[in-house]
Amino acid sequence: EKAVNLKKDLAEMQEWMTQAEEEYLEKDFEYKSPEELENAVEEMKRAKEDVLQKEVRVKILKDNIKMLATKVPSSGQDLATELNVVLENYQLLCNRIRGKCHTLEEVWSCWIELLQYLDLETAWLNNLEERVQMTGNLPDKLDAVNDALESLESVLRHPADNRTQIRELGQTLIDGGILDDIISEKLEAFNARYEELSHLAVSRQISLEQQLQTMRETDHMLQVLQESLGDLDRQLTSYLTDRIDAFQIPQEAQ
């Protein structure tokens, strides 16, 4: 009777493993929304816990069959053969579910990381847009133009590492058919805004550089003219002091 019960337990264990495999490993999942992906991750976590909890039952079966084999070698030998099949299938099931759970957790982590990088780069784009707008109505002063140019250039020196991460993370998920529509839409919107603002910022940078160069040249010309007028003023003053007649001094002084 004990052998019959153990045989029944082995059959039930095998049946449970078959059902678990069908439910957790043979489904065709399509992750088209973050909610679907998150639910799949949680489901696989529960599946992993469920399968691992059966380890106690498997160990009890193993111990009981070993004990029976010492008392009734003939019955125990047949059950031991069935037990080995169940143990092998159980270990395979555990490994496959662990693997799928790990994969889904990695995918979810990849999605969260992509969102974080997008948030960082969106904040940078907002800052860039603000700096570009600030260059719109500048006072016609060299210091103001110079400060605006340096401020814009400091934002434009932003490293490209985050954008590289966004591109690689997004492509990895899209290639796997995971959230591909949502990610494609997000990346398209981000890239379009990035290209637009970058071109605008570089164009404004060039404009400010030209404006600054013109103002510096004008300032230099005014300085040279002012120095020349100062020299002339001092020379004319010396002529007046020495009471020199106008017709006795060079033509330019007259």
From TrEMBL:
Record bears the keyword Coiled coil: yes
Q: Which Pfam families match?
A: Spectrin
Q: Which UniProt keywords apply?
A: Coiled coil
Q: Do you know which InterPro entries this protein is assigned to?
A: Spectrin/alpha-actinin, Spectrin_repeat
Coiled-coil segments on the chain, per record: 3-64
- Highest taxon of the lineage: Eukaryota
What's the protein name? UTRO protein
Q: Which organism is it from?
A: Cisticola juncidis
Q: Which gene encodes it?
A: Utrn_1
